[in-house]
Amino acid sequence: MSVAQNISLRFIYLRSLFRQHHIAKRCAQNLYLMRLPIFILLVLAICSCGRKGKTFQSDSSLDMVRYFLPLDKFADTSYVGQDTFLVRWYSGMLRALKEPVLFNRRTSKEVYRLTWLRTFHNPVAITIEKDGEQYSLYWKVCNGKGGYEPGQLTIDESKEISKEEWDNFKTLLQKANFWEIKSVDREMPMDDGAQWIFEGISSNTYHVVDRQSPRNNEYFNCGDYLIEMTEMDISNDDKY
Q1: Count of the separate structural domains present in the chain
Q2: What letter does residue 101 receive in the DSSP assignment?
Q3: Which of 67-71, 118-122, 223-227 is predicted least confidently?
Q4: Co-location of 87 and 169 in the same domain
């Protein structure tokens, strides 16, 4: 074989290798381009799923992560910094009580929760709910103090209640004008006392009302009714 023929054969062989490499590269690129739209669709699907189920929520996504109550409902307090302080305090108590966040919750149930924080007594959360034709009451207690550290969850009880008991509570709630009254109605916090925080969800509408040591009024009667329905032994003197 002559030198020229040998060079020609090598050139043909190298050109064949180049074509094989080029074809393989194009196939890999086409495969990548085919997979890219699938990847984009998966990302969009995941993001859209993350947005579902949020019928009502605070304006700030930070609230949903850190706080159990929406900051905007407490923004009308006249004492500078009080809104953030209160929501942070209440959120810590509800977290210790192992309660769910209600204000961004989507549910077909009608739910009302009383968070009862007495300065020198155990933190308490009582929830009453209607699920179709089933009515339930739940109550939880921590072993700390409502004005200090919540402590650990020590009581977690529930029971079924009657439609009549539910209707009685709804009547008291209507008398208290729960859905129309302001969330916060005070200028400066008292040193001691108790916070009666009522939250409600009905038809995916949320409202919260916070009052300090209510006595002898319709709002107090709503909370007192729930307290009496539980199996907690609490004297009238300790209902402040």
Answers
A1: 2
A2: P
A3: 67-71
A4: yes
